[in-house]
């Protein structure tokens, strides 16, 4: 079976800094794969290359067998690569529902429709409401994004990504800035997606990573230290030395 | 949906515009009708700019170019007809139903070219490049001595409308108001459509839109062309109102005035640009009667609006909690 995502020899430098150093890694279909690493390990740069915002200097990215290394961000998105942002990127003056409906609209192809009102279009609204319900935001559908709490915005990011019906969901620190209760809720939401969506998760919250991931890759100074199941990674002395320290 | 304050205000604006020809005899006759016509025509141009500035988040600083081109289509078509010199084998025309759509086409085409190039940039570069293109067109017409150059071009008469002469100011007002109504209707539908959602989403967060799978360039370019066409129509009307076109129609001062109207009236609103155009003209008349340096007073006023009413005058007409 083809892997959902295969990175081969991915390399990216900023000046003298090797932010991504020859990373080879694969995410299997239906797997939940986490990437961890200390600050400055190059996680964000790696995510940027996977989603297409950053062009690698060398290496290949394959998405379900197709070479997408040269593809633009929108093209990758339409091919089924959904993502959430580390720092929330939403249309702040839109309602929660409108934000998710935009994801549905993109999936339905072109937006060259000039006259019919999008906000009364059931083919956009219904799937959007469904995605909101999946993350527990149905009651907040009509609320403008700038009136939502931080945690709710993180949930909305996830809802928009889910509404894309992604083949791979890339989550960049979905728990960032959340309190313990909100985190727990988000973990619950992500756990409910087990077996339904392939997931690549970058996260600082170790409890979340060990609760969610089937496999974990550890990134240090831009290079891949190891990949393995949570138990193996937890007990790996190199990982402990580089990163986990007393935390595990 | 209840009748909120903005809906009510919108109805009042429409009622006032409709009442002008009837109330004019009491207020000063043709002068008032002509003034109202100027408001209506500038409102078309300003609202077309708002499609870019407000809805699209695209600060185009060269919008007068399309306004001026539309005017020059009327001027040039009339010039060739009056002088009996064909242009590219065409005798020219004095019929509004021919010349005005042509003005929209020419302006739309210019917007397509300028938009296609300038939309590849962003931020300050976008502002500068749209300004540069407009100034380029401005200087082309300054240099075109055949069409009067700097001095502009006078029209011997207004365009015929479906073969009828339009000499009555009130009739011309109704035609202009009809054009404004059509433009607002189109914008109203457009903004709520899928296209409008994509355009507004891109203004709000381009990164988010890309991550969802939108390639926003095409939608922005389409908005650019639509806005250019509407500005072209406004320019054609303006040329008819004044029976005169000159390069000043497309200079950067005019572009700046359109921006002031939109910002003062209220961005991203249907009626804001109308209010903005009316406020701009009325303030100009009130102040320029007192001093030649009226802009010294007008400038700080605009600044105050921008500082204390970021959504413009229209934004003030809003109940607490309304979006």
Biggest pleated sheet of chain A:
6 strands, mixed
CATH architecture of the largest domain in chain A: 3-Layer(aba) Sandwich
- H/E element sequence of chain B: HHHHHEHHHHEHHHH
Task: Summarize the helix and strand pattern of chain A as letters.
Answer: EEEHEEHEHHHEHEHEEHH
Mean residue pLDDT of chain A:
91
| Beta-strand percentage range of chain B | under 5%
Largest interface: A-B, 39 and 25 residues
Structure overview:
The complex is a heterodimer of chains A (248) and B (323). Chain A is an alpha/beta fold. Chain A has two domains: 1-80 and 166-248, P-loop containing nucleotide triphosphate hydrolases (Rossmann fold, 3-Layer(aba) Sandwich), CATH 3.40.50.300; 95-165, no CATH class. Helices cover 35% and strands 24% of the residues of chain A. Chain A has nine helices and ten strands. In chain A, the strands form two sheets. In chain A, strands 6-7-8-3-9-10 form a six-stranded mixed sheet, with helices on both faces. In chain A, helix 3 (96-107) packs across helix 4 (122-134), helix 3 (96-107) packs parallel to helix 5 and helix 4 packs across helix 5. Chain A is globular, with a radius of gyration of 18 Å. The mean pLDDT of chain A is 91. With 323 residues, chain B is an all-alpha fold. Chain B has a domain at 34-250. Chain B is 72% helix and 1% strand. Chain B has helices at residues 5-27, 30-55, 64-83, 96-118, 123-143, 169-192, 194-204, 206-212, 216-242, 252-265, 272-288, 295-308, 312-316, and strands at 153-154, 244-245. Chain B has a two-stranded antiparallel ribbon. In chain B, helix 2 crosses helix 11 (272-288), helix 6 (169-192) runs antiparallel to helix 9 (216-242) and helix 7 (194-204) packs across helix 9. The A-B interface holds A 51, 53, 72-75, 77-78, 82-83, 85, 89-94, 98-99, 101-103, 105-107, 111-119, 121, 124, 144, 160, 164 and B 189-190, 192-198, 200-201, 204-205, 207-215, 219, 222, 323.
